[in-house]
């Protein structure tokens, strides 16, 4: 999967079909429940089956419409310092995960996802890893290995990665990175302040003797 830094991207288009199928299948649980109630309350088994089929069609259609619209709300973004995400139809959700909090990136692919050729990237952070929970999931990713590689390159090195997925900028040891001039000036100012304090303390000590 090709991803550009600082450019939002969406899940693979097949993720929309996957969501529709999963949502439709999840409707079977309430259908069986209402169907059982219909069988108990109705003497005619044919009518009960018709009721079950009708309920399933209504719920599956509603769930399919929701899944279709939900796909259009999912957005991800990689920058040189953090990941951001957003999703939601009625209730919008957004989040930011800095790379320096990420501890691991796992690739998850169930049987149905394998059928559609997509995977999820489960992002674990320092605050969530103890419970084996993911703070964020990049869902519906086709060929997730390059994307995981880009994220982990940021996590390990802290160096920027080139604009196209898989193109890594060379990273050197931290000792070779020059300090900003502003930081050096601040250090010099602090050192001078400490010297001035030391001189004042010495004069006070001399007067007390």
TrEMBL record:
TM helices/strands, residue ranges: 18-40, 47-71
Keyword Transferase (UniProt): no
Keyword Transmembrane (UniProt): yes
InterPro entries registered for this protein in UniProt: YdbS-like_PH (IPR005182)
Highest taxon listed in the record's lineage: Archaea
Domain YdbS-like PH per the UniProt entry, residue ranges: 72-148
Keywords assigned: Membrane, Transmembrane, Transmembrane helix
PANTHER family: UPF0699 TRANSMEMBRANE PROTEIN YDBS (PTHR34473), UPF0699 TRANSMEMBRANE PROTEIN YDBT (PTHR34473:SF2)
Name listed for the protein in its UniProt record: PH domain-containing protein
